[in-house]
């Protein structure tokens, strides 16, 4: 499933979403609107998308490890 950027016409939020070609227009994750338009996205190397990194870091934090953080970030997180 490819990642696409969508812009919500109602709340003007840009969201990066995974969509299947068979899926209808996705719902806005912020307001639930169906008025989403596909946007031209800047290509990024695999695994370097800000959304992917944020989700991976949140999951790692929930699981109690910091494997998705750099060494300097791990030091900062462990000090607090």
Describe this structure in words.
The chain is of the alpha+beta class and 80 residues long. The protein has two domains: 1-42, Rubrerythrin, domain 2 (Single Sheet), CATH 2.20.28.10; 44-80, no CATH class. Helix content is 29%, strand content 19%. It has two helices and three strands, in the order βββαα. The protein has helices spanning 50-63, 71-79, and strands at 3-8, 14-18, 36-39. The protein has a three-stranded antiparallel sheet, with no helix packed on it. Pfam families: Zn_ribbon_8. This is Zinc ribbon domain-containing protein. Residues 1-41 form the Putative regulatory protein FmdB zinc ribbon domain. It comes from Uliginosibacterium paludis. InterPro entries: Regulatory_FmdB_Zinc_ribbon.
What's the CATH topology label of the largest domain? Answer: Rubrerythrin, domain 2
Beta content comes to 15-25%
Rg of Cα set: 16 Å
Main-sheet strand order equals 2-1-3
Low-confidence stretches: none
Do you know the CATH architecture of the largest domain? Single Sheet
Order of helices and strands: EEEHH
State the end-to-end distance: 38 Å
CATH top level assignment of the largest domain: Mainly Beta
- The helical percent reads 25-40%
**What's the total helix number?**
2
How many domains make up the coordinates?
2
Average pLDDT figure:
80
Sheet with the most strands?
3 strands, antiparallel
Number of DSSP strand runs: 3
Shape label: elongated
Give the helix/strand class.
alpha+beta
